Amino acid sequence: MTSEIVEDEESGSRSIDAKIGSLDGWRREALARMRALIRQADPEVVETVKWRKVSNPLGVPTWEHGGILCTGETYRDKIKLTFARGAALPDPSGLFNAGLDGGTRRAIDIREGDVIDAAAFTTLIRAAVALNTAPKPVRSKS
Predict the structure, then answer these.
(1) pLDDT confidence of 1, banded at 50, 70, 90?
(2) DSSP secondary structure code for residue 53 in this structure
(3) Measured between alpha carbons, how far is residue 131 from residues 60, 96, 125, 126, 127 in Å?
(4) 46 lies in which domain range?
(5) Which of 13, 21, 98, 142 could form a disulfide linkage to 107, CB 3.0–4.6 angstroms apart?
């Protein structure tokens, strides 16, 4: 691993630290807990921050492994974990509760007082990693 990549990963983690630190109360606790579960489920996850803009200078925390696994958007009344390829993931525990009509993404909205099943969430993260890192099918040129 080159030092440039390590610096980028460290910078992403520091940026997520800053984002979490900027939040108040339950949103800080919820995003920190979900981040810890993501890192526990996939120790090789790469943390980045995307979509920085004037109205959101700290950007959106993003977790990647072979592509985007999920993002952690923060709103006044919720934390939204959006899975980039969520429609293709099994969700037997019914964690997805937002974006259910979308053809690609699915999300988990977490509101104050919500309790997310840690084991089910860990399984979902691992499934997202497996989906992102699975060999791509070879298309025949017939």
Answers:
(1) very low
(2) B
(3) 22, 17, 10, 9, 6
(4) 3-133
(5) 98
